Fold each of these.
Amino acid sequence: LPAGGVSLRLCSTRVALEGINKPVIDRIIRVDHAGEYGANRIYAGQMAVLGRSSVGPVIRQMWNQEKDHLKKFDELMVAYRVRPTVLLPFWNVAGFVLGAGSALLGKKGAMACTVAVEESISDHYNSQIRTLMEEDPEKYKELLQVF
């Protein structure tokens, strides 16, 4: 007990799960977390190859944005009590190899990889937004803002 004998209860980072479609939310957050994790590994691979080149600062800036995205999905995993995918070790290696492999093709190869991945992610998020909007936009307001 702290001074004065009053117990402190830490605030929970979890959200109220009543009324949400838990299987859908679990799937969405798990998949998005894996995607953000993979994107981070792609940038790590690109930086390993091109980090000291003229394009290194651009890759670093994009990677820093992805780190913020991953941090947010780490928080959502806790808040919504979602377990990570069992494929994270695969994404760890595959993401790095994809990033390094595309970077070995040069600046254009790395940027082509980045554009392709970002377009795919954008389509994916748009699909998730439609799913949540059809169900109940008010109930999923926080997640819709993240996407």
Amino acid sequence: QLAGMAVIAFGLWLRFGGVMAGFASEKKSPEYFFMGLYVLVGAGALMTTVGFFGCCGAARESQCLLGAFFACLLVIFAAEVTAGVFAFIGKKVAIQEAQKIYEDTYDDYMKNPGGKVNRTIYQHHLALQCCGKGNMEQQMGLPCPENIQMPKASNCLVEIQNIIDAHLHLVGIVGIAIAGITIFGMIFSMVLCCVIRNTRDMI
């Protein structure tokens, strides 16, 4: 249950409080990346629910509930492996999608500076701590946040790739931790089932 709640909190933080959250405030957003976060939150909610039934099964010494708990953990484990493969294959698509959103905003600003586009590109720059696409001449006219390191953070396309790579690594670490907990949960549920059966046979 605790692991499930931690996963929910982690997924919501990445979606609404992380660096990429700034891309979700406009009409366009990196849906492929956010879809993975929604799956992560859903898996956390399922883990929390399954954990509750596992506790009930252990408290009541119910082989039926413990067997159901084992089956649910097995499904969650298979889903985690599938999601990991999906995230690895789709990483390039997520990066390209986020870069395309920035490039569209950048082009709109260059065609008509000011107004809503000005606020949008500034939000992107503030969230990513970068400015422009590496062209120092055009960069001078862009709305850039203060105190960003130049020219290290002058290319937002590179920063987007770095940030998504870093976030996916975090998701991967969390996924491995959840997989380990899931395996231990399956082992312990089977051990409890065997102990309960042996105890009842002795009685």
